Amino acid sequence: MTPGKGTAMDLQILPLENQKEKITDESKLGFGKYFTDRMMVVEYDRGRGWHSARIQPYQPFSLDPAALVFHYAQEIFEGLKAYRHPDGSIGLFRPEENIERFNRSARRMCMPELDTDFVLEALKELVRLEADWVPSSPGTSLYIRPTMIATEPVLGVKPSDKYLFYIILTPVGPYYARGFEPVKIWISDDYVRAAHGGTGEAKTGGNYAASLFASTLAAQKGYDQVLWLDAEEHKYVEEVGSMNMFFLYDGKIVTSPLSGTILDGITRKSAFALLKEMGFEIEERALTIAEVLDGAESGKLQEAFGTGTAAVVSPVGQFTYKDRTVQISGNKVGETTLRLYNRLTGIQYGTEEDTHGWVRKI
Ligand code: COI
Predict the structure, then answer these.
(1) Would you say residue 192 has pLDDT above 50?
(2) pTM for the model
């Protein structure tokens, strides 16, 4: 293996002695609660590069309590899915995009990059070995979580000299327990997720940790998610931590631009292509919170939905900002949201033609 980047040749497959019981009732899967029998692991040491790539039994790590990840959160991750197709085969949705975004997150967090082909081949091999874990009920999939953590045991604030890259797999149902139903969103005025120049577009755990306080307040008030506004003026729509936001506004699709504070979503990108095919014009522009609230009341805002790997396409039925609550599409799933959901999931589940070449068969 060349230092810095890995190659597929060096992937060792270690024996599996015990297999776990699989969840037979797929309606009980939930999201990210059960993990498969195997995981993929690669180690990195500065000066040596990536080494010791292996697929091994799923097991806990033994890490030094001083490992940098525990103190300064040098960590990144990704989320992608494998879907069971009607003929029993398995398809990954746009995996190269996730690996490239992982490397962009790595650069932002001063972590070493991985070779895209190597990760893709290793990922396919892992899913192939764990194929029996890919569920087949409607709305289910195998969620894939590539992760990198800083493992050097030292307390100085600096980029680690040692890392672990690993991939774990979890069979999942819908991200929101109620499934494809409109969600209730609380718009945060007091708290922000990311500012320009920060780490908002990197998929790093700290962004999610920072969102927990407002999310907890929102959950206590009965909301499903928090919609974040821009950090500077608290005026423009940014994203919902687990989803990019889209609005059907005055007949056009409006979504926040990528300005470094929101995630460059792969489902977002896919939604662009599919919505354009449906004949919509897409405006990437900063939408104000006043436009959302007033638009909902005047009827100019016809639909709102979020997109994300875990959430897929998720309709929004209600927004609350301070003491003002508005309903969207009468708190029902809007027609465009449904069309997009059906087209996207049709491609992902192999029931519709993959005209964009997004699916990689295992
Ligand atoms: C995903 O959509 O895959 C994500 O990483 C969001 C996560 C918070 C579940």
Answers:
(1) yes
(2) 0.94
